[in-house]
Write a structure and sequence with these properties.
binds ribose-5-phosphate; about 290 residues
Length: about 290
């Protein structure tokens, strides 16, 4: 067994290899002057079970192309089996055609990965489980809720409440609340399909004097989180933690969220970010062995 830590997930890949106590295949990578991607896996992979670790956070297309090339390289090297850990699977928010004339972007990604020769894939907290149906190979969605629970247990929160930023995320909030033995609720959010404008509907939350964890799958521009935090602050919440599986944190998202009143931003190392405070290496290793 060999782990290939892709350029986008180097630390995570090395951590996984250490936990599995297996060798690492170093990857040489560069960008040609015209912008094209170059990858070389610097190890013999013939007859090996190869685990490629590569998240596809922004720049998504660049990281996807690196992933495609690593799968192809492993297949060309006659690897026995290729298992992928792609914590953030890009384009998963485009799980259907919202407007006529649109492509089904998530399906393009899944079909390409499979066509290139991956045998199995693990992802983390995928935005839409529908996307996994585009694979015919085994595809697993891992959830880091236990890890979030353990992280927040250490903070000795005051009468905590887990808040889902929309109704769809309530189940995850409930699961995390069970671990912390506390309550959960959700905020009503809608997004305009044309402008991307978010509307957060004010709902009376029982938050006065309590510590809040607002838990989302992705923080991208920080717009959803900032609105939720402002609303909770207005209603008298105490400390508010902005938590997510995938801290994309585009442009000034961090400033936006902290200015809105967040105590901290907590993400996983699905994304190589300074807010990646929770490692998902053990989560992959435990599930990989199941
Ligand atoms: C959308 O439904 C997701 O669950 C997140 O709430 C969304 O992607 C966050 O995006 P942003 O940070 O740009 O508001």
């Amino acid at each position: 067994m060999i782990v290939v830590p892709g350029p986008a997930s180097q630390k995570l890949g090395v951590e996984i290899a250490k936990l599995l106590n297996v060798e690492i295949a170093p990857v040489t990578f560069k960008t040609f002057p015209d912008g094209e991607v170059y990858i070389r896996i610097d190890k013999e992979l013939k007859n090996e079970l190869v685990i490629i670790v590569q998240s596809t956070y922004p720049p998504q297309d660049y990281h996807l192309m690196q992933l495609y090339q690593m799968i192809d390289a492993a297949r060309n090297s006659e690897a026995e089996k290729i298992i992928l850990f792609v914590p953030y699977l890009a384009y998963s928010r485009q799980d259907k055609k919202f407007l006529s004339g649109e492509p089904l972007s998530s399906r393009i990604v899944c079909e390409t990965i499979e066509h290139l020769g991956a045998d199995e894939i693990f992802v983390l907290d995928i935005h839409s489980e529908i996307v996994l149906k585009f694979f015919t190979i085994p595809a697993h969605n891992l959830m880091a809720l236990e890890l979030f629970g353990s992280y927040f247990k250490e903070l000795n929160l005051i009468n905590p409440l887990i808040v889902a930023p929309d109704e769809g995320a309530l189940e995850k909030a409930k699961e995390t609340a069970k671990i912390l033995n506390c309550g959960s609720t959700y905020i009503c959010k809608t997004r305009d399909r044309h402008t991307g404008e978010i509307t957060v509907t004010l709902k009376e939350l029982d938050v006065a004097g309590r510590d809040l964890i607002i838990l989302d799958d992705i923080i991208s521009t920080g717009g959803t989180m900032a609105k939720a935090i402002e609303m909770a602050k207005r209603q008298g919440a105490n400390r508010i933690y902005a938590a997510c599986s995938h801290p994309l944190l585009i442009q000034s998202a961090k400033v936006r969220i902290l200015q809105a009143g967040a105590e901290d931003i907590i993400g996983t190392n699905s994304v190589d970010s300074e807010c990646a405070k929770i490692s998902i290496a053990s989560l992959f290793v435990e599930n990989f062995h199941k």
